[in-house]
Amino acid sequence: MNEGTLPEKYLGVPLISGKVTKAALTPLIDKIRTRASGWAGKMLSFQGRVVLARHVLNSIHVHNMAIYKWPKAVVKECETIIRNFIWSGNPAERKAITVSWEKSCKPTEEGGLGIRRLKDINLSMLMKQAWILLTEEGDWPEFMRGKYINRTGGWSNYKTSTVWTGIKWALNEMAPLHGWNVGNGEAINIWRENWLLQKPICDFFQEERKEILKYQARLSECIQGDRWAFSIEMTQVLHHLGIDISKLPQPDSSKEDSRVWMASTTGKFIVVAAHEAIRTKAPQPAWSEFIWSSKVLPRTQGIVWKLAHGVARTNNQLQKRKTHLASRCCLCRNQEETLDHVLFHCPFAKRVWKYAQQIFHIQREMESFSDVR
Ligand SMILES: [Zn+2]
Question: In this protein, which residues make up the domain named Reverse transcriptase zinc-binding (predicted)?
């Protein structure tokens, strides 16, 4: 009989044993770097590089991200590669004057470049695994539930594995994003499931929380037929939480309880909706609508986007970065060269605006980017 060997990869993902380390993911980082170096970045416009980064770079690691929680150092290094590629065309070359990565990683309507943060991609994809674990039948979810649910019905804190670290992270982060459609109440632990509010009842009693988590009571104990039948003690708890029992939707004992993903309208889990729920949002600037219009040339889009964020090699920006030079506008030779001066306040800029206002019949005075809408 020959000794077998385990496969090294599954679905293109290297199988890792033990903790997911930066070393284990280095081949992947190298792949992203090689891919980005291979594109003639310098020959492309800023906008062209953004499109490449958005579609291709973000898809290389997707399989791997669906399984492992990436260490912070790996996320940081990959984002640096993508960021450098977008700004300089070379993954190894850092540009001094750029828009912050946080601002760049917003949808275009929110003033960003439509690039997603790797941490958010990672988390939303792991949430899918966690959702399968919570809701589905089958070998994998049943095996995982058997292994990681402890004696009191909670998730194990002590067992570790390469995969569990990521799923546990996702389970914690998605707790406020799902709830229950109450049926017969048999699947729901009254205290540790969020069947009532956005978080479980035990979380409202911080001091007693540890003790409460030992209770095994099921919600079915509070249901008779298709009506609620709360005990006096439970009624007091609900009253304490400000719940009006008469307004609770009635349970339906003919059905089993089902989990609902609250971040989507259908109640079903969708990775895109999960991503949307976890990412940080930004207000919508007035200029975002027209910059990305199909009427604007791609090359111009990139330039205007940078200007809208105040990014230009004006003298005052260079001074901030300790380049010694006198900041004087080269057109009027009167004022300091700032972006607002060059684009709006300089007498030369004012003449250009006046000319444009006459042609396009615009009444509004242009004093800054917030007036452009
Ligand atoms: Zn000037």
Answer: 269-353
288 pLDDT band (50/70/90 cuts)? Answer: confident
Domain segments of the chain as ranges: 9-96, 183-256, 312-371
- Structural tokens at position 67: 């399984």
Average of pLDDT values for 241-264?
A: 89
Bridge partners of residue 10, in order along the sequence? 13
pLDDT band for 11, please (50, 70, 90 cuts).
low
* Residue 191 CA, ligand 1 centroid: distance in Å: 67
337 alpha carbon – ligand 1 mean position (Å): 7
Q: How confident is residue 76, by pLDDT bands cut at 50, 70 and 90? A: very high
How many Å lie between the centroid of ligand 1 and the Cα of residue 343? 9
Residue 44 burial by CB count (10 A; 0-12/13-18/19+): exposed, middle or buried?
A: middle
Cα 95 to averaged position of ligand 1 atoms, centre (Å): 26
Distance 339 CA to ligand 1 centre (A): 10
What contacts 318, CB < 8 A, 6 or more positions away?
Answer: 325, 327
Cα 333 to ligand 1 centre (Å)? 6
Ligand 1 centre distance from Cα of residue 97 (Å): 22
Q: Is the Cβ–Cβ distance between 369 and 288 less than 8 Å?
A: no
Q: Residue 356 is encoded by which pair of tokens? A: 């444009």
CA of 326 to the centre of ligand 1 (A): 14
Q: pTM score, two decimals?
A: 0.83
259: phi then psi, degrees, rounded to nearest 5: -80, 145
pLDDT (mean) for 100-127: 93
Average pLDDT, the chain: 85
For the purposes of burial, counting CB atoms within 10 Å of the CB of 35, is it exposed (0-12), middle (13-18) or buried (19 or more)?
A: middle
Ligand 1 centroid to residue 329 C-alpha, Å: 5
Rounded Cα–Cα distance for residues 238 and 33 (Å): 55
